[in-house]
């Protein structure tokens, strides 16, 4: 069954001096301030579209990797995934680096790398961001 998730942004003013809020409507877990300076300069306690993409990508990748490892009979003990989304004003999003550290008993570092590559290729957020260069750094800790 398909699911739809919703977020809403309320924006006031022009791009450079305006600001807004993003609310996570489906979950209701929060409303977050956004502004151009928080996107193109220092965050200063506000979020950005790129930070929200990083959150979506790191969580989706973790789920995809966990599912793949479990399907292979080696569920992870723990995964820590970080997504760094780079935004260049005037160009847009120029790249994403996914860094994952995994503790997975019963597999080799090579098997972990292969599973991570498969998760990168098949995670629905990775697929949605296919027009962006996505780099993977996988660290196997046993």
UniProtKB/TrEMBL annotation:
InterPro entries in the cross-refs: KH_dom-like_a/b (IPR015946), OsmC/Ohr_fam (IPR003718), OsmC/Ohrsf (IPR036102), OsmC_Ohr_Peroxiredoxin (IPR052707), Peroxiredoxin_OsmC (IPR019904)
A Pfam family this chain is assigned to: OsmC
Protein name: OsmC family protein
Origin species: Microbispora bryophytorum subsp. camponoti
